[in-house]
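Q: My collaborator sent me two sequences in one message, no labels, and asked for predicted structures for both. Can we handle them in order? The first one she listed is below.
A: Yes, handling them in the order given. First sequence, followed by its structure tokens:
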Amino acid sequence: MKDKDPLVRIAAAGALGALRDPQALPRLRRALKNKDPLVRGAAAEALGQLHDPRALPRLLQALKNEDEFVRRAAAKSIGKLSPPEGQRGEILEDLAAMARSADFPPAEAAFEALWGLLTGETD
């Protein structure tokens, strides 16, 4: 029987991110579609910990999520990745648009992501 408790899923996402195992990528990408925004946000954060650019397409989709926490986590994670040169301009534009928004926590995260992508300084 699968556990449906969001707290368990949030903890699992955090643990998968902390392990930094690329094999966690498919599970975390699926978790971005979970109905609970806290699970989606935890998955977005964990994807950033993997430092795997294959997570970019799903994280870019998460930038448009209706939930502020998910958008913020996705932006922060994108700032930790090294996007392919062909996608870099589009990603910078998406983050810049988010940074200009009046939606403070996601805008702040977008600034942090832009800083990470432009300087290479990530946490």
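Q: And the one she listed second?
A: Here it is, processed independently of the first:
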Amino acid sequence: MKQRMTLAAATLLLSACGGAAPQARPQAVPVPIDKPASAAPAPRPMLSTRGLEAVIGKDANALIRLFGQPRLDVIEVQGRKLQFSGRACILDAYLYPDGRNGAEIVTHIDARRSDGAEVDRAQCVNALMAR
């Protein structure tokens, strides 16, 4: 009799657990790795370095010889930013380790007027060298 009650209790417990049908998991939708050309983002325009030969690839000492003492000298985690200014423009030169001996060299520059309007980078370099 004791076995019958145990069997009945176990049956009741099992039937209570299995009352609802298991829910199906949503299937993953495969994402194509290759996107059609129309979906690819437009390439970013490359900035010309024409006229920037006096600056690109140079170290901080070369920039100081060209332009004088920088208005700002900001040490960043991965590199350094030197800012030079004159009446014509403000030039930001970004220096990063070049991989050879760890020397920091100019890899990018930005140029603008004091009101923030963008100016030609080569013209700004020439204006700052002429002063």
